[in-house]
Amino acid sequence: MRLPYVPDPPPTLSAEDSAIVDRVRARRGSRGLTQLDRALLHAPAVADGWNSFLGAIRTKTSLPEDIREIAICRVAVLNGAWYEWKHHAPIALAAGVSEESLNSLKSDRAEGMNEKQMAVVEYTNAMTREVKVPDIVFNKLRPLFTEREIVEITATVGAYNTVSRFLVALDVGEMNETNEH
């Protein structure tokens, strides 16, 4: 990483910082602090907000796991965030995404996916590459998902674009020189 990781356990200057570390640890459970957490903890208030927001994206939406993880993995590929890919590809597989479908996310020819999954890939591509989503892409998504799900998909893609850009900019996990994992 371009900065040193915060030690684990992190040195804390205040009770508030200690509470932030405790909240991050609680969300991570037995995995403990990740390299991403140890990068974010350079700015405890940012780490706290990140933990809350990404915790909601990951565990409090109504999206099926396969839809969420396809979006996250596609963002990882588009932005070259192989640390993100390394952590989310196994979750996608566990959520029922086939190996063929997962590997096809590494190219522009997503294969072996159902209509909903393909619509999410196209939407993720548009949001990540151009930001402004063309009507033709949005109109494929609209009949397949509820308004709540569309907001959740949009928030997931937006959030993981933030995550991937943070990971790549600071080379969290030291994976920038890799082409894929």
In words, what does this structure look like?
This protein is mainly alpha-helical and 181 residues long. It has nine helices and no strands.
Number of strands: 0
Rg value: 17 Å
* Secondary structural class: mainly alpha
The chain-level mean pLDDT equals 92
Strand percentage:
under 5%
Q: What letter string, H or E per element, gives the SSE order?
A: HHHHHHHHH
End-to-end gap: 18 Å
* Oligomer type: single chain
- The total count of helices amounts to 9
Q: What does the main sheet amount to?
A: none
Concise synopsis of the structure shown:
Helix content is 64%, strand content 0%.
What tags apply to this protein structure?
9 helices, 64% helix, mainly alpha, globular, 0% strand, 181 residues, single chain
Compile the SSE list and pairings.
Elements: H1 15-28, H2 35-40, H3 44-59, H4 65-79, H5 82-94, H6 99-104, H7 115-129, H8 135-141, H9 147-170
